[in-house]
Amino acid sequence: MSEPVVVVGAGPAGLMLACELAMRDVPAVLVDIHPTQRAEAPAMAINAGTLEMLDQRGLAAGLREGTVTFPEVRFADLRLAFEKVQGPREPTHMVLQSRLEKVLIDRAVELGVDLRWATRLTGFEEAADGSGVTVTLASDAGEEQLRCRYLVGCDGRESIVRKQAGIDYVGDDWVIVRGIVGDVAINREDVAPEQYGLSYTDNGDQFLGAPLSPDVMRVFSAEFSTEPPEFEDGPATLEQLGDAVKRLTGKELKATEAHWLQHYSIVTRNAEQYRKGRVFIAGDAAHVHYPYNGQGLGTAIGDAVNLGWKIAAEVHGWAPADLLDSYHVERHLAGRLACMNIQAQLALLYPRPLARYMREMMGEFLKFDEVNVFLAEIVTNLGPAVPIAYEGVPEPVEGDRLLGRRLPKVQIKTADGDMGVAETLQSGRGVLLDLSGDASAQEESGWPTASTWSAPKPGTDLPGTLLLRPDGCVAWHDGGGWGQDELRTALRTWFGAPTG
Fold first, then answer.
1. Which domain of life is it from (predicted)?
2. pLDDT tens-digit profile of 429-443?
3. pLDDT in tens, 103-128
4. Where is the binding site, in residues?
5. Which site among 128, 149, 248, 444 is 20 to 30 Å from 341 CA-CA?
6. Fold (topology level) of 174-266
7. What does the pLDDT average to over 397-412?
8. Is domain 5-168+272-341 annotated with CATH 3.40.50.20?
9. Can you point out the beta strands (E) in 234-325?
10. Which residues are annotated as a binding site for FAD?
């Protein structure tokens, strides 16, 4: 086997990245300190942007089955006009992180990822000539040194990779939210009406109760205004959860058993660098914040989808200059905006009575469509737009709603039958999507890393021809005055020199 890419941490970011590499014939070794997949995975929402990224790899269909959808998109406790986002788009689905991880584990195994449970990274050293990284791994079988092309830390908030790489984790030191999350056994008839769904106290504290089955419920408490007495060393208990639920809902929690519970406290951090030489970080290792709107999962999956094809391009020798550096540029922006908007949402909630005027002012701002669209895209991982600019090429038309974003969920007709745009990306290659009917895009056939799909223009206002990067991002289209010369520039920028 040629030198692999080593990914540390089998959470959503690590699993998705390993799949992104393996589907492009890049050997991946994925290591995780846990003996098997963790049940204690607190995330439970997959938003529109995350579903679109998973659809691009054919992974989302099964996740939708049997799920509950959230009826609204909110910024703190303010409703956003999600229907104003260019669509069609999907609502947020209640999908447990453990269910998503199982789908990704199955896919990783199918693709031949070398998945090593109960294995710990103890150290690494980059070669003096910058040609690779040697990692030291420890397991019950002993210690092993492994040479790899790149090392990617997806190992969470306390990332060993980030710390040993000397990357600063910048953010707020103060803890604004504390709570308990977990799954409890409870008879559905014993659940009080106040314990279903999401609710807020007058102080902005939150409670979420979500049935997972007739006798299991996911519970989530978030207390801003006080430091509850149970936040001490040691595991969370059912008694502590019961006290929190009584404080937040006014009703006793009649749970009979805790399947798992954990204390959590949230700080906000965004790493100063997402790349240092041949070492990268992604997911919570790169950014961490309060879990709101499904943004934690979405930002982690976004990191993996952005980085995977760029590493593969380097491995296979066709990457243009600075392609790997664009990972930090694009994803650091996404991490910064995730941290910023969530901190702003917390400020609107806590302390709720004192934030009344700020919420009223935000209500006035939300009367402007541009504000609604910007916030709705950010909190559903449909934004931010990737900054797209080309040297020597005029700037795109101001207000372009396609460039740097994924296309809406539209159906097209192709020689292979009707399909969604996302299906054209399932090979992991870029796509030159020709909807014009005049086959002008067929002239650009010298880039085998980007496939061309010709289809009649759907009943939408999409341009006639669009270039999509492998992550689904629109890198060029002919609707803003750009022509074939700009298309060739875009192809060279993202796919290197033509070979045909």
1. Bacteria
2. 999 998 876 555 555
3. 999 999 999 999 999 999 999 999 99
4. 13, 32, 38, 121, 155, 284, 297
5. 248
6. Alpha-Beta Plaits (3.30.70)
7. 88
8. no
9. 257-271, 275-276, 279-281, 287-288
10. 13, 32, 38, 121, 155, 284, 297
